[in-house]
Amino acid sequence: MSCLMVERCGEILFESPDQNAKCVCMLGDVRLRGQTGVPAERRGSYPFIDFRLLNNTTHSGEIGTKKKVKRLLSFQRYFHASRLLRGIIPQAPLHLLDEDYLGQARHMLSKVGMWDFDIFLFDRLTNGNSLVTLLCHLFNTHGLIHHFKLDMVTLHRFLVMVQEDYHGQNPYHNAVHAADVTQAMHCYLREPKLASFLTPLDIMLGLLAAATHDVDHPGVNQPFLIKTNHHLANLYQNMSVLENHHWRSTIGMLRESRLLAHLPKEMTQSIEQQLGSLILATDINRQNEFLTRLQAHLHNKDLRLEDAHDRHFMLQIALKCADICNPCRIWEMSKQWSERVCEEFYRQGDLEQKFELEISPLCNQQKDSIPSIQIGFMTYIVEPLFREWARFTGHSALSENMLGHLAYNKAQWHSLQSKQHRRRGSAGGPDHASPGTEKAEQTAAAEGHTP
């Protein structure tokens, strides 16, 4: 039986867990190579991190042999695979949507281009299928299904694969975040300064990249993977580790679903490469690189959107904006996203503390407050990028709306921070927002600790 059949159908089972581990060790690191020559990772190739490995090797300073790491990580990922495919009936009942919920979801989709679109409500109305429902709708409204002659069943299957490869237990990097970024990308693609130049291929690339840009995210950042000697850090030589994985996983799903199999070979090659360029642009370590290029273009007034290269660059900028647009949402949604991303940071910090690793910047719940993290993120990452985006759009209504929300939300976090300081002062506790906090936030942002 082929390795693929083992992964997808789960039909090889042994009584001994060790035998199972040995059997599935092939699954985690198999990479597919198609006609394009671009390596693609098999679905589910990002195993959950088995922190027992860290516990067993903390004092030795190593994470064990590469073979052992791959075996145990793949074993753990295997047991995370679909329980239905392994013949295990879930205990929770299947909740089907009634007509009222479907009607409300359809009504929300009619306003999907509004910036106050509530992705959390939409996810509840679609029973946790916000990403699939949203993408099917957007592909249809943008005419992509007709233009590229896509099979609707195949498209749905591909989108389900993408949605299922997001980790639902992540507070932040999950399918709802992907849906939120996709909705923001849709709004940016409609900006008058950009929309009139976009081709159907540009639109499809933008939406696909937004939907898949964080697929299979483990809930920890790149520095964590590097210092725990994770095999993906070795595979990608510590360079854009997560982004490379998101891209290669996307290629694997595109090929497995055969969504684009009917298109010319040269076109599929181009789509795969351009998706990679877009997803890799979301690496926070490249923030200054893209910001400097955008500032130079705007200063020189040399952007020619008739040119495919310049359009692709602005798609990269649009995706970067969509990925970090949470501080530009209305306060109620922005605050919820902020709490979610900080919860994910704190979980990483707790794991690092448990296994006697150095706690990463912004991941120490006792020292790094949510207001201080968010103020630093807004000041050093979000504001500079969105100011330049507003310049590009000619200060469109949407850009001004986002900057208004950003200023209001930052003021709210400053107010909450002041209240925290007063409470700590009256209690005689330490003031964690020391003068060095902002510098630490800049350093953390440079190291990829921002959402």
Account of the 3D structure:
This protein is an all-alpha fold and 451 residues long. The chain has a single domain, classed as Catalytic domain of cyclic nucleotide phosphodiesterase 4b2b. Helices cover 62% and strands 1% of the residues. The chain has 22 helices and two strands. It has helices at residues 3-9, 17-24, 52-57, 66-80, 99-109, 119-125, 130-141, 144-147, 152-164, 175-189, 192-195, 200-212, 222-227, 231-235, 241-257, 265-280, 287-300, 308-323, 331-354, 370-393, 397-427, 437-446, and strands at residues 31-33, 39-41. The chain has a two-stranded antiparallel sheet. Strand 1 and strand 2 (39-41) form a beta hairpin. Helix 10 (175-189) packs antiparallel against helix 12 (200-212). The radius of gyration is 22 Å and the shape is globular. Zn(2+) 2 binds at residue 214. It is an enzyme of class 3 (hydrolase). Residues 418-451 are annotated as: Disordered. Its EC number is 3.1.4.-. It comes from Dipodomys ordii.
Key terms for this structure?
451 residues, mainly alpha, Catalytic domain of cyclic nucleotide phosphodiesterase 4b2b, two-stranded antiparallel sheet, 2 strands, globular, metal-binding, PDEase_CS, PDEase_catalytic_dom
